[in-house]
Amino acid sequence: MIGFVQGNIRIIRKESVVIDVHGVGYEVFVANPYGFKIEDNVFLYTYHQVREDASLLFGFLKEADYEVFIRLINVKGIGPKTALNLFSACSGAEMIEAIENDDVKRLKSLPGIGAKTASQIVLDLKGKFVSVETTSDVKTKNPVWDEVQEALVALGYRANQLTDIKKELSPREDLNVDSMLRMALGMIAKRKGGF
């Protein structure tokens, strides 16, 4: 399977770009082909779909978007092309937010998604994005907080539950990992109702 493609864009089509990889042109379906420029050097994370009648590549600039796509295509009724189309309307992070918040209305507004499929997406994927949420899209400038967040997620807290704590602790550059983790756990304990 082809896990990524890196090279210069030679052709831009309606639904895809053709990337020159050492003299071989790989056609990769992307959400917004016209967002690229001819001769751009790109690195795309790819999903390789092999069917009886075709072998197709779907590409993403961000690994987090790739991960969301992989989970979406495992939902009943969503194929790779439908899943890819969703990224033309919103980012993977926005989709995660809609799923985690049970925002069926937001999902229903995406191209090719009806009420039934939107509900199925929430049912199948809510709570499954912890690993995605802690990747590059939500990294802060403070590596100490990133480590603390990973520790909290390992303890069972979801990244989207830590937003308030992140706002307070991520700017603190005077704390080491142990101190910040203790402080974060203290803040969680003080909250009424907990998590």
Strand order of the largest sheet: 1-2-3-5-4
Total number of beta strands? 5
- Tell me the helix content: 40-55%
Largest sheet: 5 strands, mixed, barrel
Which H/E pattern describes the elements?
EEEEEHHHHHHHHH
Give the helix/strand class: alpha+beta
Basic shape: globular
Radius of gyration: 19 Å
Individual helix count: 9
The pLDDT mean sits at: 85
Strand content: 15-25%
Report the end-to-end length measured between terminal Cα atoms: 40 Å
Uncertain spans = 131-139
Please describe what this structure looks like:
The protein has helices at residues 63-72, 80-86, 92-100, 104-108, 115-125, 130-133, 143-154, 163-169, 177-190; strands at residues 4-12, 16-21, 24-29, 41-50, 55-60. The chain is α+β, with helices and mostly antiparallel strands. Helix 1 crosses helix 3 (92-100) and helix 7 (143-154) packs across helix 9. The protein is globular and about 55 Å long.
Summarize the structure.
By secondary structure, the protein is an alpha+beta fold. The protein is built from nine helices and five strands.
What distinguishing features does this structure have?
5 strands; alpha+beta; 9 helices; 195 residues; 5-stranded mixed β-barrel
Task: Please outline the helices and strands.
Layout: E1 4-12, E2 16-21, E3 24-29, E4 41-50, E5 55-60, H1 63-72, H2 80-86, H3 92-100, H4 104-108, H5 115-125, H6 130-133, H7 143-154, H8 163-169, H9 177-190
Parallel strand pairs: 3-5
Antiparallel strand pairs: 1-2, 1-4, 2-3, 4-5
